[in-house]
Design brief:
- The chain is globular, with a radius of gyration of 21 Å.
- The protein has nine helices and 14 strands.
- The protein has 387 residues and is an alpha/beta fold.
- The model has no long low-confidence stretch (mean pLDDT 97).
- It has a seven-stranded mixed β-sheet with strand order 1-9-8-7-4-2-3, with helices on both faces. It has a three-stranded antiparallel β-sheet with strand order 12-13-14.
- The protein is 35% helix and 15% strand.
- It has two domains: 229 residues, Type I PLP-dependent aspartate aminotransferase-like (Major domain) (Aspartate Aminotransferase, domain 2, 3-Layer(aba) Sandwich); 122 residues, Alpha-Beta Complex (Aspartate Aminotransferase, domain 1), CATH 3.90.1150.
Length: 387
Amino acid sequence: MKPTSKPLNPCFSSGPCAKRPGWSFDALKDAALGRSHRAKLGKNKLAEVIDRSKKILGMPDNYLLGIVPASDTGAIEMALWSLLGVRGVDVLAWESFGSGWGADCKNQLKLTDLNVYKADYGKLPDLNKVDWKRDVVFTWNGTTSGVRVANGDWIPANREGLAICDATSAVFAMDMPWDKLDVVTWSWQKVLGGEAAHGMIALSPRAVERLQSYTPSWPLPKIFQMAKGGKLIEGIFKGETINTPSMLCVEDQLDALKWSESIGGIKGLIKRSEANLAAIASWVSKSNWAAFLAEDVKTISCTSICLKITDPWFTALGVDAQAEAAKKIASILEKEGVAYDIGAYRDAPAGIRIWGGATVETADIEKLLPWLDYAWNEVKNSEAKAA
């Protein structure tokens, strides 16, 4: 039967993600439009983004945080290009983006002392294989697989190498053990529902020491440079951005940070995201056709929540036919105005990906779930009749 109730906000994309509840363009009325980002007004707003972010996240006082170009991709590649090459490197890859960072290390930086530990979608690599005398690159949460590391217990406090973490779909939704991480990157358009093209990079004192004591053998574009002549470019971490940011997006990010504070900061953000996962988990436990792509319950993401289709009719299809059937489910939901952009990532197994970050209301998740059953039955029944 076709459900009668629809989510108030049908935006379940995994990036850019839903705006915070109650958002309107009025939130941008104080944006420093037409003003220089180098002027006191603009610089103060950029510094405020840094300061509010550090406070909400509980980042140690001796960690640095900067706003950098090109979203999370720019931030993580800035780290790879600037910091790698001193030691051997281990890369952990269990979905598309982690695989991309491994490819960067091999094909672009041409590192010769490189290990890439891979796992299929739904799984984690063997974390025990990591050698912490080496630098280690990994995603905290696999945005395209819905698999996260359960915690930071596998990272030693006395590691010799740097822990370089792409946490774009984890920060503001998961507990980050800052003392176990030397570089953490993310972007505005994920958990807080901000706008794209702006990245954030957090550096531990150990990462700063590396920056100031090491000069890579390869060229560094200007937008990757965090040090010059053996000295940190400190202004980057005080709101003096490398290139020109969008002051409209800066204002929007400030609005998102203030909203985060109003709901209880990091604890409130995590609570909302975990509630969204819990709602889907309850539905999955009763479903006869869908399951989490993540195989270990401890690693199921609370943000990029990925579902696989387990019905025998579907699993008997070829890969292309599976992808087509999953696309039809997403298409029905979009046409009904129920859910936008919930198809699986293009490189991932065919299925459904629902964003569960803090800006998504649990009530909207709950209203979406009966529609998943409806769309699935519509697709399966129509395909069966056609056969």
